[in-house]
Fold this protein.
Amino acid sequence: MSEQPTPEHAPPVPAPAPPSGGHFALALATLLALAGLASSGLLWQKLGNIQEQLARQSANNGASATEARTLARQAEEIARDTAARLTVTETRVSEVALQRSQLEELMQSVSRSRDETLVVDIEASLRLAQQQAQLTGSLEPLVAALKSAQQRIERAAQPRLAPVQRAIAHDLEHIARSTVTDTAGLLARLDDLMRLSDDLPTLGGVAHASAMRRPGGSAPAAKDHSSAPWWQAQLAKGWELVRDEARGLVRVSRIDQPEAVLLAPEQEFFLRENLKLKLQSARLGLLARQFDAARTDLAGATAALNKYFDPAARRTQNAATLLQQVQASLKTADLPRLDETFTALNTAAAGR
């Protein structure tokens, strides 16, 4: 039996010839593969470029972030430094503002102190002038003090003292229209009355009996004894002397005040001293500008003069005339007061 050839020893079978359409598909597939490979290469290259660009950008961003952190730290330090400097500046500004306010207050205090000193000085001078006017009874101290105060206020040129200046002008006008009592003349008359009181005759005074005789009466005419003998002439003169003395022992007069006759001679001293005390009290009341008290004392002195002293004596009549003159000259008008000026000064001192 013949041996069958095995597959290994079988002759190769020739491959069938591919058709012509297959070469085109293969070429197309190859082209597509090449195109895909080219595009893949391009994409890979592009991706590489992108990666490099991203790496560079990442490096740049890292450097920028590092620089930004550095700048941030520097900015933070600068901010802290600036805040510290701002705090110091604000502290200095507050200190400067405080010093400025203190300086302004000091300037205002100095200005106010000068004005207040001026106001206090003017008030003191006016009060002193008012006391001098009360003591002397003259308006000259008041006028001089007001004019001096007016000149000082004009030199100060302070608007807040304008009301004081107007008040001073009003008081000057008021003083110009005022009239006061002649205190010096009244005091001189009272001094004359006190000197006359020592020699005033009382109603019951024996030593002043001659004052009670009639003004028209005359002493009996002395007789001429030249022709008579000397012894007869001496006897006649002795008789006439005894007769005159006897007539002086008895005196008949009308007295309307019986208590005046009952005064003992030693009581006349106290009567005159009482009259002097009344006149002295009236003098003090006049000096103190207490016109009511002075008038009361003068009325008491007039009543004592009319009650206990001889109204027919010349000295008593002179004293009564002086008392009437003093009472007539004593006016009720007081010294003008400076109320408006003092009110304006108090307002200026209070700072209103």
